[in-house]
Amino acid sequence: MVKFRKQKKENPAEFKDDREPNIRFPILLMIKIVGWEMIWIIIGMVGYACFGAMPHIFNILMGELINIVVGADVTGIENKINNLAMWMAIIAAIAAILTWIGGSMMAYSFERIGIRLKNAYIESLMKQEIGYFDMKRTGELMSWMTESMEQIQDSFSNKLGRATQFFVQVILGIILALVFSWKMALVMISFAPVIILIMFSSGLASQLITKRTLKISNQASAIANEVIGAVRTVRSMDSENKEINRYKEKLWSGNLLYVLRAIILGAPIGAQEISIWGVLALGMWWGGQLLVKSEIAFANMFRVFTLLLMSVLGSSQIMAVIPDLTRAIQSSKNLLKVIRRIPATRFDGGITPDRIIGEIEFKDVSFSYPTRPNIQVLKNFSLTIKPGQAIALVGSSGSGKSTIISLLERFYEPLSGKVILDGNELSEIDPHWLRTHVGLVGQEPVLFSGTIKENICYSIRKTSNDPFPSEEEIINAAKAANAHDFISALPDGYNTVLGERGVSLSGGQKQRIAIARSVIQNPEILLLDEATSALDTNSEAVVQDALNKLMKGRTTIVIAHRLSTIVNSDLICVFHKGELKEQGTHDQLMNSGGLYAELARKQMMKKQDSSEELTKVAEDEIALETPYKSQATFETVESKESLTSNSDE
Description:
649 residues; alpha/beta; ABC transporter transmembrane region fold; four-stranded antiparallel beta sheet; 14 strands; transmembrane helix; ATP-binding; nucleotide-binding
């Protein structure tokens, strides 16, 4: 099971993931991911490198022009100058072509690399265990994919090419200067250690500060995503200004870092000015000394002077792009931490039984959530569920009921013990096969942007073994879920496009579409987690009827809170603080006079209460939560009374 530890930082709610990889060489890892796309990058970098050599070629030709002009032989001087001009024009044309090729190749390659990285990121993200998402904020994960990717593409597609160009310009300039006059060149490049030290120091400092500023930016983005996603709640609570201030405070919390970063970014600019003018002054003085001593020709003095001048200018340009490249490298680390992370639970692979019977066994199962490792929500839980049984899970909020469903879906792995399905350990079964045969209807149905038809068929993979349902099958599923009538009444029927999360539908309508989705899936095991708790009386009755139809002939585990569904449960399990305290049929539990019977009697005394939801009667009271198997009412209790208004976990 994946372990998390608390970070000793400003936010005590944050946890550090022990499975998060340490990314030391992000560039090498990115090269491995992008594969053959590196060919386009190399072509682009070669183009930029050739362009970086162009200023030096011009300088050499200019030196030749000086030799022609000041030379003793003036014969054919016009033709010589014309030839030089022609070569300069040719070189200028070549430079333009190389720049175009380099820029185009780099832009094209990083567009494709961006797609590859996004695909790798979302693929890895979707394979992570549910516990990983408990630790991470959705907005932060999404900002890594959007903002970080934009920084990578912008910096590497443009800045990397320019850095290559200026690097070649610096190195080639120094080499050629040494060739033409090593005496003059060595003195002029004495500034190089200072420039290199400034570049290295500013780059390192920029990387450290960028890491922290990026974190603040991602956290602010997470706040914005959270607030926008819950804008109706924010508006209803009149909390717009509070959220605006929370966002502002997060952004401004890095004000000192922004100041330090600005100082660091400004330091290279001052250094480059000192370097340029220092090299010019030193070169002019020392070149003059050598010229007076006849140890250097004027043309070579000019060449060395201009070659090293271009090298210094190139180094200043490199210093200018270092912060952007540093920011891009740090952004790539955020992406690679997700891409390279190995999930705590296996995403695919394992045995695929020929058929499923539906017998489930829990053997001494204990479990703690990653966010609460010191709190066991299940303690040595054991239970055998026979095929076709309807099992009710009863207990107060936080007693472990929803955890059992999560373990059956393999959202988490037990801390200890085993979950067994038809004689096979759940951890050995292929997760894809498992979820094909296990259906889940939750308290808050999730619908996606798209048509109603697409949402009903969401679980279908569209393969030869899992073909897309026919129109008739979709309609029959909707009828079974009591959804066909309201869908048909819509202008576009089953082709009605739903907004994000199905906001255009009522809670009952969304729940019925979710049930139709399970009907299409046709699972042998059905899990119902508070499937009607959020609905009004009328919607509940319609959804209840649909659930009754869906449960027939299936192994069913249900968490519910309506008393009317208790009586006909095959087995009722009563939980308290993570432990199974009682189990049996309704009659057995009533006759035993235990927790279940006590709470049932208290509820009967409140049957005159006009509210459907009973208030919590005591801190440790057990709330009944049971399956939807029948609409039969408990003989002494009104059918719409509720045992608890709290949802599990």
